Amino acid sequence: MPFWIPVTIFAAFMQNLRFLLQRHLKVTSLSTAGATWSRFLFSAPLVALLVGIYATFSTQSLPGTNGRFWSFILSGALAQLLATMCVVALFAHRNFAVGITLKKSEVILTALIGLVLLGEAVSLPVVIAIGFGFLGVLFLSDPPKGDVALPWTARVFNAASGYGLASGLLFGVSAVGYRGASLSLEAGDVFLRACFTLSVATAVQTLALGAWLSIRDRAEIGRVFASWRVSSLVGLTSMLGSLGWFIAFTLQTAAYVKALGQIELVFTFLFSAFWLKERTSGKELIGIGLIIFSLLLIVLGSI
Questions:
Q1: 281 versus 189: which is more confidently predicted?
Q2: CA distance 210 to 225
Q3: Kind and range of the H or E run holding 109
Q4: Angle CA(1)–CA(181)–CA(54) in degrees, nearest 5?
Q5: What would the mean pLDDT of 58-66 be, rounded to a whole number?
Q6: Nearest-5° angle of CA 75, CA 255, CA 270?
Q7: 34-51: per-residue pLDDT in tens?
Q8: How many Cβ atoms from other residues are within 10 Å of residue 155's Cβ?
Q9: What is the secondary structure of 180-191 as a DSSP string?
């Protein structure tokens, strides 16, 4: 089995944990920007330390950068920062499920952006797999019984949907940007290039959002540090998940990685069903089945 497959599954699992922790911060103590900044603030030093340790023990020099690297890393880092803020903002809306559904448009958008910017085409079987996966997401977005079903226009044209679609587009830009940045580095093995790219991205994100908070809401900076018990866990899960994504992006086309990354929805479903003991509808089972089928298509097509 290609190494990018288990790495992507690990990254999706850690991302699921990170979003749960960020949701806790958002609904209990921090603003959207604060909950987002906590991720980068506490993960940046961990990634930098990892880069230094690995480079030392593997006797490798840090990769040299170039203009292509910086153009990709800056666009990817800022796009991911804004995308994360969009997802965190979703937590305050009733139409969260619809917004998350539109967030998953990132798989399709990543394939299109990768084709335009990197010239990386997606095979027909993967296109079919992406289609099955998105269909499964649509089934999962159906409101549960007991909720008041909203009209179609209200479900699509609302703030949550806007945040979801924007995050999908921005996550697609960030995925392609990170792959482009990693591939532009000439020195270092896969792990060092992935770690180095991640360290630069998190540093840019920490400084950019930190500067914005210092101007717009300086008190939020103190609240982020005060929530260090949970925020540090956000940083740790963010570092582990991001490291998995960056390694996968270095090894495989971003569209393939994002398509397999939909396994995150399966993890969320299992957590809801077996940990929270929430009842599962027939449409949800169909949706999960379609997503699992799409994941199998991707894995079998990559072996």
A1: 189
A2: 12
A3: helix 106-118
A4: 65
A5: 91
A6: 110
A7: 888 988 899 999 999 999
A8: 18
A9: HHHHT--SS-HH
